[in-house]
Amino acid sequence: LLTDWITPNDVFFVRSHLPTPNVQLEKWTLTVGGSVERPVTLGLSDLRELRRVTSTVTLECAGNGRAFFDPPVAGVQWERGAVGTAAWTGVRLAEVLAMAGVGSSARYVWLDGADRGIGKAPDFVRSLPMAKALDRDTLLAYEMNGETLPVAHGFPLRAVVPGWEGAYSVKWVTHI
User: Fold this and answer.
1) Residue 54: beta bridge partners?
2) 54: which residues sit within 8 A by CB, 6+ positions away?
3) Which contiguous run of DSSP H or E holds residue 175?
């Protein structure tokens, strides 16, 4: 299926920990709070007004190849294929954090998406050390391979955290 080193959106692996949310763009916002000088709430149009950055990044599920582990381990039994490379376009997470005036006491950034657990399943969140959150290559992406980010890949906004397992590239981001 692959004729180029960029993985087309329709064959890029999909892994979600919770059910895919039904995000209504007209109601969707990104809120940045916590240890900041001024909490901010942004819509997608606000993010599109910031400096646009495109970065080609490979994401890999931590479970890629898990089916071959001996002894076996719990989790989705991926064989091969839970890895893909895309050109992600959006804004630097550092720029959004700067808008909110991240406090000097902040040590981690917590990323939360619109997906929610069923029953007693906990919310799916990831935290990044401040140094990784402020890294120039850590993005909040709204496009994938030159197209609007597909729903299965986090529409309208996902984190892209190069060099870290795919689970840190939180999809459907709503809160930081």
Assistant:
1) 89
2) 87, 88, 89, 143
3) strand 173-175
Hey, is 151 helix, strand or coil?
helix
Are residues 8 and 147 in contact, defined by beta-carbon separation less than 8 angstroms? no
Count of beta carbons in the 10 Å neighbourhood of residue 146: 11
User: Of how many residues is the chain composed?
Assistant: 176
pLDDT (tens digit per residue) in 66-88:
899 999 988 888 888 889 999 99
Which structure tokens are listed for 107?
Answer: 């040590």
Tokens of 99: 């808008």
> Could you give phi then psi for residue 85, rounded to 5 degrees?
-120, 130
Do 64 and 76 touch, CB atoms closer than 8 A?
no
Q: How far is CA 87 from the centre of its chain?
A: 14
Which has the minimum average pLDDT: 13-17, 32-36, 142-146, 160-164?
A: 13-17
Per the structure block, which two tokens stand in for 76? 């989705």
CA nearest neighbour of 28 among 125, 151, 160? 151
* Burial letters 3-20, b for 16+ CB under 10 A, else e: eeeebebeebbebeebee
